[in-house]
Amino acid sequence: MNYKEAKEKFIGTWGALGSLWGINKAMAQIHALLYVSPDPLSMEDIMEDLGISRGNASMNLRGLMDWGIVYKVNVPGERKEFFASEKDVSELARTIAKERSRREIQPTMRVLKEVSSIEDDGNKKTQELIKKTKEMYEFVETADAMLNRIVNQEQNWVTKTLVKFLK
Amino acid sequence: MNYKEAKEKFIGTWGALGSLWGINKAMAQIHALLYVSPDPLSMEDIMEDLGISRGNASMNLRGLMDWGIVYKVNVPGERKEFFASEKDVSELARTIAKERSRREIQPTMRVLKEVSSIEDDGNKKTQELIKKTKEMYEFVETADAMLNRIVNQEQNWVTKTLVKFLK
DNA sequence: TTAAACTTTCAAAAAATAATGAAAGTTTAT
DNA sequence: ATAAACTTTCATTATTTTTTGAAAGTTTAA
User: Fold this and answer.
1) Rounded to an integer, what distance in angstroms lies between the CA atom of residue B125 and that of residue B112?
2) Which one of B89, B112, B126 has the shortest CB-CB distance to A136?
3) CA B124 → CA A37, A39, A45, B68, B129, distances in Å?
4) Phi and psi (nearest 5°) for B22?
């Protein structure tokens, strides 16, 4: 497998995996491309490399910047904008976890809390709904907190301890 | 908010969240419905409650059974099949984590390994590709192992320790 | 201030995904 | 063995999501 094939394989796989962290194919592919590029790329470069339209490139780059994992880079002497990805994989994970928590987990927790707080009318079904959503709330709360901890500052203590266990 | 509204809110939210764990809306909604039902439901019940077709119900129930979080329940004296969801939220999470790892993370890791093993031809781009995919491989490997550990047996030691930290 | 270089927006088109429903398939009771 | 009760399959239709491309917008250089 040569460079070109390997790069395409990586970009393709990463693109297909986009759903894992909730983004579309083009967005994931742009990210993959920037992640393995030694230098920042222009929109032109990206369009050409991935075979996508200008509008598509523009919108998805904006999306990646909203996620906070891609940013504009000023290249001296160049008029157009260049883009680069966050290169540190831990930092990448940290940002993604934080964003997903904010965008999806927190809103869900709000609903779980709301639903589990309805009045108990004595009906079996109502009681089950309250019980199950309460359990779910507590679980998600713990899981989210764990994820954030793991992925955040406290990497030292917790991660090191865990990693020791896993080796 | 009464029972009906609360139930619909939960089912709707859970459905919208389906993408978080990679399943479609109907599938997530069926799961939500079964999760908060005190008793097993027939396909008829599910179709009616969610307003979906028979074919849709059938296929998505099968999908949920493939995930291993919904199963058939035999109700004595009834000819038709009844379905119930795994009710323990930790068990649910464990199953989902295991399946996602098997379906998505493992295949991705295989590609990362493959791509990071190409021959170093001395080119800067090739070297960057190798370096970045290697880093990603190592990170995903650790994260996957952590997730599995956390979600699996060793809950006692690790989880308790972590939970203590998070309270 | 003008115009070239570049980027963004968004209505329309294309592609991908999900849902329907009726025919085919299965199981069970008699 | 038959038929009623029920489930699955899958070609077709509907819906949703993504992509395009050209017009509108912005920035920069002269």
Assistant:
1) 16
2) B89
3) 9, 10, 17, 46, 9
4) 75, 35
Determine whether the distance from the CB of A77 to the nearest atom of strand D is below 7 Å: no
CA of B39 to C1' of C29 (A): 26
Degrees to nearest 5, angle at CA A33 with B145 and A2:
85
Is the torsion defined by CA of A73, A68, A152, B144 positive or negative?
negative
Q: How far is the C-alpha of A32 from the C-alpha of B133, rounded, in Å? A: 10
Query: E strand or H helix at B73, and its extent?
Result: strand B70-73
Q: How far apart are alpha carbons A92 and A67 in whole angstroms?
A: 10
Å between A79 CA and nearest CA of chain B: 24
Distances (CA, A) of B36 to A126, A136, B30, B59: 9, 11, 10, 21
Q: Report pLDDT digits (tens) over B1-42.
A: 999 999 999 999 998 888 777 788 999 999 999 999 999 999
Positions 46-85 in B, CB within 7 angstroms of strand D:
54-55, 58-59, 61-62, 78-81
Contact at CB, B17 and A135, closer than 8 angstroms: no
Which bases of chain C are contacted by protein, using any atom under 7 A from a CB? 5-11, 17-23, 28-29
Name the strands in the sheet holding A82-85, side by side, starting at the edge strand that comes first in the sequence: A41-42, A82-85, A70-73
CATH architecture of structural domain A3-85: Orthogonal Bundle (1.10)
Bases in strand D with any atom closer than 7 Å to a protein CB = 5-11, 17-23, 28-29
pLDDT of residue B145: 84
Q: Where are the domains of chain A?
A: 3-85, 89-166
Inter-chain touch A3–B125, beta carbons under 8 Å: yes
Closest CA to A115 of B51, B84, B39, B35: B35
Taking only the tens place, the pLDDT of each residue in B116-162 is 999 999 999 999 999 999 999 999 998 888 777 777 755 555 555 55
Binary contact (A3, B121; C-beta < 8 A): yes
Q: Do B112 and A37 touch (CB under 8 A)?
A: no
